[in-house]
Structures are given as C-alpha cells and as structure tokens.
C-alpha cells in the first residue's frame, strides 16, 4: 500500500487472506514518497517468491500501475477511498491503464480490498487444490449467511 493511512482498508484484504490461510506480507511502498523502495520491490517481487501483488493506494494512486510496469506478476489494484473525492480519483488513477500494462482494478474501498484478496486467492487456487477447497468453503459460508427475510 502507498501509506500507513491505507492500512485500515488494506487490512481487510489481509484478514481475508488470513482466513483462507494464504501466506502474505503487507508493506508500505509509496510511488511518490519512496519511489526507490517501490522500484526495488516491484523488480524483486518474483525473486522474493511473490505470485500475486495487491496494490492499494488513494488519491493520485499511481502505485498499482507503476508496479505493473515493473513486473509481469498479476497486479490487483485497490482504489482506497480518499477524503477529497471519495475514491473516484483513486479509481480513475488505477483503472485507466494503457493497453499492454494490466492492473486488475477492484471496487473503491473496503469491498475492493476484500475482493482483491478473494481474486488473489482464486488465481493461486488454480494451482493449489487445497486452497481451492478453502476458497469454495469460504464462499459457501458467506452464501449461508444471507437470510431469506430481513430482520429488524
Ligand atoms: C497515496 O496518498 C496513499 O496511497 C494514500 O492513500 C494517500 C494519502 O497518503 P497519506 O498522505 O495519508 O500518507 O499515496
């Protein structure tokens, strides 16, 4: 993520990954404030053993796109909800990538963070039957949580 201030949102992705028992790390890597750290991370991610990157940022959210420019690992972008423009700035900064440099862009805010984790897990599950089962169980449990009638 681009900042400590993104953590309340990105923590939700981390929690879903914990629930699915997907090994992961959370790091602060800013495209603007720590560009050298971002570059080193993006270029070294595959060598460090990462398979998928979830990049969350808000405002002028260049982090996902810049990381995608420097790795061929799948990059999922989470537009963090900004105070000034409610995350529309984040969304548009992340989603409008030029052809050839893809970022899989999720929804603004909490839903995007959770879904990024589920999408990352689904990618990893293509080559991991146990994870595929855990993911299907997780999804089935959420379906089971939906009541048929509203309660007061
Ligand atoms: C972006 O700027 C970060 O991803 C964050 O969402 C936003 C604001 O960062 P802070 O000023 O709170 O550190 O780079």
TrEMBL record:
In terms of InterPro entries, this protein maps to: PurE_ClassI (IPR033747), PurE_dom (IPR000031), PurE_prokaryotes (IPR024694)
* Protein's name in the database: N5-carboxyaminoimidazole ribonucleotide mutase
Top-rank taxon of the source lineage equals Bacteria
Family matches, as Pfam families: AIRC (PF00731)
Limits of the PurE domain: 1-146
What's the gene?
Answer: purE
Q: Which residues bind substrate?
A: 3, 6, 33
Report the family membership: Belongs to the AIR carboxylase family. Class I subfamily.
Q: What does this protein do?
A: Catalyzes the conversion of N5-carboxyaminoimidazole ribonucleotide (N5-CAIR) to 4-carboxy-5-aminoimidazole ribonucleotide (CAIR).
Question: Which organism was this protein described from?
Answer: Erythrobacter longus
Does the entry feature the keyword rRNA-binding, yes or no?
no
Which reactions is this enzyme annotated as catalysing? 5-carboxyamino-1-(5-phospho-D-ribosyl)imidazole + H(+) = 5-amino-1-(5-phospho-D-ribosyl)imidazole-4-carboxylate
- Specify the taxonomic lineage: Bacteria, Pseudomonadati, Pseudomonadota, Alphaproteobacteria, Sphingomonadales
Q: Which HAMAP family match?
A: PurE_classI (MF_01929)
Query: GO molecular-function annotation terms?
Result: 5-(carboxyamino)imidazole ribonucleotide mutase activity
């Amino acid at each position: 993520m681009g900042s400590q201030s993104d953590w309340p949102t990105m923590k939700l992705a981390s929690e879903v990954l914990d629930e699915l028992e997907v090994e992961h790390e959370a790091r602060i890597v800013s495209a603007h404030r720590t560009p050298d750290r971002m570059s080193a991370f993006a270029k070294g991610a595959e060598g460090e053993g990462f398979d998928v990157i979830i990049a969350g940022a808000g405002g002028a959210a260049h982090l996902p796109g810049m990381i995608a420019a420097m790795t061929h690992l799948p990059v999922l972008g989470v537009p963090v909800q900004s105070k000034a423009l409610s995350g529309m700035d984040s969304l548009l900064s992340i989603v409008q990538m030029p052809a050839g440099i893809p970022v899989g862009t999720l929804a603004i805010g909490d839903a995007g963070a959770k879904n990024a984790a589920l999408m990352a897990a689904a990618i990893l599950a293509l080559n991991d039957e146990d994870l595929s089962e855990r993911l299907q169980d997780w999804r089935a449990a959420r379906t089971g949580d939906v009541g048929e009638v509203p309660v007061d």
